[in-house]
């Protein structure tokens, strides 16, 4: 096994609904918080919205064909809650359900295992107007929606994830306001985090009570924290940052308790919670999805509210088109996978997102989009994942982020993460060099990663 991936290791790519579908209000869909947020002036780069995105809502057949050409064995997508339940609960939109029904059937016909995420940040506005994730009722709303999807697609979906990256929902949506719904409050952030975790638990219970056949887990983004110095202040800041971003979610999910640092960090905003809620959160899951992009070198910083910790630039390493905070650091992936096993024990793991935005040529030239930095990024991160496998981590699959150049939230369309280039004017798709490289990875089951290459 030394130079190859385990038999059955799954190769995939990922997207999310609001980032690729477009047509957010088509055929009876209701508005989501991202629809509302992106349409308010000043919230996104150039005022860009997901109105068109990649027009995947209409081009899904073409996109499945692309996936087939790439050789994908699994496709991770998300379901837009307001497409299937326009008001978030109550009346079902049959056209919305039919879209996902067709998509799943199309994937299966192409031999691609569907991996569906129930929540990738697009809460129906009708629920946001009743407090959204800060309202404990959201636990019931979410599990009703989840049950509807288990009934509709449960006979065919191989993998379910309840939530994508609860930390981003909380940090960007409720603490710093850079994402929808654009709020800034420690009280809202702490309540939203707790309700997200309880809603996850309620949805897992609904899954176990349903006739759905696949496996269920959750997707978290993990960022290993490294101290900027050995000073006591920097070490403590690193612990706080790790508790806030990583252990905040995994400790209750897998150990049944919140990290000790959090009550102090949140102060009077820290919510009361009962043993019954902690038990609800700690439902057994079938797998853990990990999104890995970067590490965080951390220092003490009194001016950084409320964490008193901030990131330190690492000019000795390359960074991505998202700026110095997005350092390219493949060893962080190995370390993250090993840390998860060490802290939380044996659990099937999947890398559910990994990828980078780089300075791709804006248009395809003679049918080609050279993106050598992305090829390098993928190769090095896949090697880092393989290092963890060699050290015994039960890693079962890898999903590149992203299949397509898509709507990068508040950063709009200028930031391109795709293996496949999407022309903004014509929406034409062109496989980038990284897509061809990834196809070789899949066809050789990762063996090409260990062939000698000319370094860039
Ligand atoms: C999210 C994606 C996003 C990607 C790149 C992840 O945090 O799940 O939706 O596009 O990072 O920023």
Describe this structure in words.
The chain has 15 helices and 15 strands. It is α/β, with parallel strands linked by helices and 456 residues long. Helices cover 39% and strands 16% of the residues. The mean pLDDT is 97. Bound molecules: beta-D-glucopyranose. Residues 16, 19, 164-165, 168, 221, 291, 353, 401, 408, 417 line the site of beta-D-glucopyranose. Beta-D-glucopyranose (BGC) binds next to loops.
Major sheet attributes: 8 strands, parallel, barrel
Instruction: Give the C-level CATH assignment.
Output: Alpha Beta
Q: Give the SSE order as H and E letters.
A: EHHHEHHEHHEHHEEHHHEEEEEHEHEEEH
Task: Give the terminus-to-terminus CA distance.
Answer: 27 Å
Can you give the mean pLDDT? 97
Strand content: 15-25%
Q: What is the CA-atom radius of gyration, in angstroms?
A: 21 Å
CATH-defined architecture: Alpha-Beta Barrel
For the largest beta sheet, what order do the strands appear in spatially? 1-2-3-4-5-7-12-13
Assembly status:
single chain
Main structural class: alpha/beta
Number of strands: 15
Under CATH, the homologous superfamily reads Glycosidases
When the domains are counted, the total is: 1
In summary, what is this structure?
The protein is of the alpha/beta class. The protein is 39% helix and 16% strand. It has an 8-stranded parallel β-barrel, surrounded by 5 helices.
């Amino acid at each position: 096994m030394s130079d190859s991936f385990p038999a059955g290791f799954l190769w995939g790519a990922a997207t999310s609904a609001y980032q690729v579908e477009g047509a957010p209000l088509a055929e009876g869909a209701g508005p989501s918080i991202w629809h509302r947020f992106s349409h308010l002036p000043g919230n996104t780069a150039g005022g860009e919205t997901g109105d068109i995105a990649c027009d995947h809502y209409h081009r899904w057949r073409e996109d499945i064909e692309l996936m087939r050409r790439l050789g994908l064995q699994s496709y991770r997508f998300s379901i837009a809650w307001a497409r299937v339940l326009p008001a978030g609960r109550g009346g079902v939109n049959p056209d919305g359900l039919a879209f996902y029904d067709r998509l799943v059937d199309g994937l299966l016909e192409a031999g691609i295992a569907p991996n569906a995420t129930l929540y990738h940040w697009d809460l129906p506005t009708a629920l946001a107007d009743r407090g959204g994730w800060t309202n404990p009722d959201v636990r019931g709303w979410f599990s009703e929606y989840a049950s509807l999807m288990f009934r509709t697609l449960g006979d065919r979906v191989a993998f379910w994830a309840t939530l994508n990256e609860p930390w981003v929902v909380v940090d960007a949506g409720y603490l710093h306001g850079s994402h929808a719904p654009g709020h800034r409050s420690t009280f809202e952030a702490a309540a939203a985090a707790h309700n997200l975790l309880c809603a996850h638990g309620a949805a897992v219970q609904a899954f176990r009570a349903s006739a759905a056949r696949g496996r269920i887990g959750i997707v978290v983004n993990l960022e290993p924290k490294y101290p900027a110095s050995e000073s006591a202040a920097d070490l403590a800041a690193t612990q706080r940052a790790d508790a806030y971003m990583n252990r905040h979610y995994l400790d209750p999910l897998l150990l049944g308790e919140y990290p000790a640092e959090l009550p102090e960090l949140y102060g009077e905003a820290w919510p009361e919670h009962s043993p019954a809620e902690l038990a609800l959160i700690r439902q057994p899951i079938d797998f853990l999805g990990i999104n890995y992009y970067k590490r965080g070198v951390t220092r003490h910083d009194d001016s950084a509210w409320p964490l008193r910790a901030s990131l330190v630039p690492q000019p000795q390493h390359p960074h991505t088109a998202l700026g110095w905070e997005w350092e390219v650091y493949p060893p962080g992936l190995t370390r993250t996978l090993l840390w998860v096993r060490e802290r939380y024990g044996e659990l099937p793991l999947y890398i559910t997102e990994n990828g980078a935005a780089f300075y791709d040529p804006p248009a395809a030239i003679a049918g080609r989009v050279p993106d050598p930095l992305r090829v390098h990024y993928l190769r090095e991160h896949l090697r880092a994942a393989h290092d963890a496998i060699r050290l015994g981590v039960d890693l079962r699959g890898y999903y590149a982020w992203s299949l397509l150049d898509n709507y990068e939230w508040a950063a709009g369309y200028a930031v391109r993460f795709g293996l496949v280039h999407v022309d903004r004017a014509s929406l034409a798709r062109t496989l980038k060099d990284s897509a061809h490289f990834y196809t070789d990875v899949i066809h050789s089951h990762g063996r090409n990663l260990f062939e000698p290459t000319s370094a860039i």
